[in-house]
Amino acid sequence: MDVRDAAEVGGLADDRALLGRTSTAERVADILRTRIAEGYFPPGTRLSEDSIGGALGVSRNTLREAFRLLTHERLLVHELNRGVFVRVLAVGDVDDIYRTRRLVECAVVRGLGQPPFTLDGLLAAVAEGEAGASAADWNAVSTANIHFHRELVALAGSARTDELMRGVLAELRLAFHVVDDPRALHEPYLLRNREILDALRAGERGTAERLLARYLDDSRVRIVAAYARAVDAPAGPAG
Question: Whole-prediction pTM value?
Answer without folding.
Answer: 0.79
